[in-house]
Amino acid sequence: MLLKSVMLVESEATQLGHAHAGSRLTALDQVANRPIVHHVLDGLREASPGGIIVAGEADALIDIRACLREYEPALESVEYVVCHSGVGIASGLRAIAALVGDAPCLIQPADGLLDQPVTTLIALLADGSPDLVLCAARQGENALGGRGDTTADIGVFGPGALAWATELLSSVGNGDLAFVGDQLAAAGGQVTLHLVDGWHRYRGRGWDLLTLNRVALDRLLGSIPSSAQFGNRFEGRVLIDPTATVRSSVITGPSVIGPGATVIDAYLGPYTAIGARARIEGVEIERSIVAPGANVMHVGGRLVSSIVGRDARVYRDFSLPRAMRVWVGDGDEVALC
User: Do 205 and 235 fall within a single domain?
Assistant: First the structure.
């Protein structure tokens, strides 16, 4: 019986427990110049011969479906399932139960990435054939104490186990995967906890986005067009779009430069993503994300572990009087060294 994968889509507000109209989808934010959800699908396509199910609230699925139309290669076996407001694992399981049937099933959020291939988690089903494997990030020494010290974001259900869990949850409210595991264990099911090294989820914090950018760039396949081969120095895996302009620069991979971007007299260190139409000139940047349309020019220092938003401008101003002038939005962070 072929395994199915379910990708659960949640907005940033839903993750915090107060869903509301217009809340943004963290899965649509970009790392390595692609939406996070595209990177998640890369792993699920490899692990899911039985097909992929995308589940979430109606408004969220509209945006996700539009984003997945741009996924390459074109998707064939993807089904969409609408969950009730607030999603929650229990209501999500009820929504997908008919499509999954008795097949084994992997459930993963649409805004998280693993350092390791997803297939390594599916292999856990062969170890004693558990009904459910709860996969949680290792949170340090305290996480070794058991399920109560961790948050399980990924679940791998054995054959028939998801249908059984749905029956057990038919009369209770929503809960997380650990709650589902408690219900299965109380009914005599075999539930195990697997602590995962290298599970990273984006919940709207900039540092998390940079971490996912690192994970995605580690999977990068480099390609440098002939137009950029001369007058630049490249080290490691570097992916440059053929329409980008790169001159008099040093690029260290893994790094990616998007369509129509311009990089002149710059140093791009490892784990840096330069978005489409961005302009980088006279700057040193490492471990950073520069979003599409942004300009970073002659800042007079090296940018490290930074995120420059879409169409933003970061530049050195030589006008008088000399001063630092910043426009900082709600929740943004600026560190001055």
Answer: no
Name the residue with tokens 């007058």.
231
Spell out the alpha helix ranges (H) of the chain: 12-15, 36-47, 58-68, 89-100, 119-122, 161-168, 177-186, 206-218
Cα distances from 25 to residues 13, 162, 176, 320, in angstroms, run 9, 26, 19, 42
Residue 239 in tokens: 């992916």
Q: Report pTM.
A: 0.89
Rounded Cα–Cα distance for residues 118 and 108 (Å): 10
11 in helix, strand or coil?
Answer: coil
Does some domain include residue 147? yes
Of 40, 32, 112, whose CA–CA distance to 290 is shortest? 32
Task: Retrieve residue 88's tokens.
Answer: 């929650």
Bridge-based pairing of strands 112-114 and 199-201 is antiparallel
Structural domain of 253 = 220-315
Letter for the amino acid at 191?
V
Structure tokens at 335: 């560190």
313: left (phi over 0), alpha (psi -120 to 50) or beta: beta
CA distance 39 to 36: 5
Would strands 30-31 and 199-201 be described as parallel, antiparallel, or unpaired? Answer: unpaired
Is residue 325, in this structure, part of any structural domain at all?
A: no
Total number of domains in the chain: 2
At residue 144, the pLDDT reads: 35
Structure tokens at 322: 């000399």
CATH value at residue 173: 3.90.550.10
Residue 324 lies in a domain: no
Instruction: Output the six-digit token pair for 117.
Output: 């291939």
Pairing state between β 152-157 and 105-109: antiparallel
What is the Cα–Cα distance from 92 to 271, expressed in whole angstroms? 35
Pair 281, 180 in one domain: no
CB 10 within 8 A of CB 112: no
Mean pLDDT by 10 residues, the chain (337 residues): 87 52 80 96 85 91 93 83 72 87 92 90 78 82 42 90 89 76 92 90 92 96 93 96 97 97 97 98 97 94 94 86 75 76
